[in-house]
Amino acid sequence: AQKVTQAQTEISVVEKEDVTLDCVYETRDTTYYLFWYKQPPSGELVFLIRRNSFDEQNEISGRYSWNFQKSTSSFNFTITASQVVDSAVYFCALSVGPSGSARQLTFGSGTQLTVLP
Amino acid sequence: DAGVTQSPTHLIKTRGQQVTLRCSPISGHKSVSWYQQVLGQGPQFIFQYYEKEERGRGNFPDRFSARQFPNYSSELNVNALLLGDSALYLCASSRTGATRPEAFFGQGTRLTVV
């Protein structure tokens, strides 16, 4: 069985600060995908980033960056120079197996991020 | 292209009733999945359908059922509603293949059982 743990329940930062959201996952599969989603108050889950288990290269996309480390089963997400509009619940998610299995996601419990002006 | 659309957006039902939720995937997406999100928790996987066949089922009772139509839209049915079924029900669609495995979600249907 798969499991995703987001130990941070709530984080509060002041605008322009950098913030890192932690995610630890568990799976016995060797092929898997990891995702980060954002859920604003409207409720819709918005896809942000993904990484597959064969690519540990960390990347930066605009204000977003991620740190994927298989050795510690972690997939952390960083927002640089946070903005008030970044306030939302952020979910880390895992899918296992070949690419088609991305349709069956295991989510963490989410981290509520509040960015104060 | 339009995103994933769900209807209705809000619904109030009485305990014991039945409810049907609808989902239209993004054009070109053949897979539809359903998730239940109880307030304060992460979404929980209910069903996945691909090419009109059930390809996965989460740990939910038989009161929950779903189907996918030839145009890839989908319905989620819940019978004999319980107060605990009150939640946000999310539909997601995705492509096939390894290049774009991510799922895209609709705005959800908020179901309240009274």
- How much is the average pLDDT of chain A? 90
Number of DSSP-assigned strands of chain A: 12
- Amount of beta strand of chain B: over 45%
Oligomer: heterodimer
Query: Which percent range describes the beta-strand content of chain A?
Result: over 45%
The global form of chain B is globular
Structural category of chain A is: mainly beta
Global morphology of chain A: globular
The Cα radius of gyration of chain B reads 13 Å
Q: What's the tally of helices of chain A?
A: 0
Helix content of chain B: under 10%
Largest interface: A-B, 27 and 30 residues
Brief summary of the model shown:
Chain A has 117 residues and is mainly β. Chain A is 0% helix and 51% strand.
Characterise the protein shown here.
- The complex is a heterodimer of chains A (117) and B (114).
- In chain A, 0% of the residues lie in helices and 51% in strands.
- Chain A is built from no helices and 12 strands.
- In chain A, strand 5 (32-39) and strand 6 (46-52) form a beta hairpin.
- Chain A starts with a strand and ends with a strand.
- Chain B contains no helices and 11 strands.
- Chain B has strands at residues 5-7, 10-13, 19-24, 31-37, 44-50, 53-57, 64-68, 74-78, 87-94, 104-105, 109-113.
- The model of chain B has no long low-confidence stretch (mean pLDDT 93).
- The interface between A and B is medium-sized, with 27 and 30 residues.
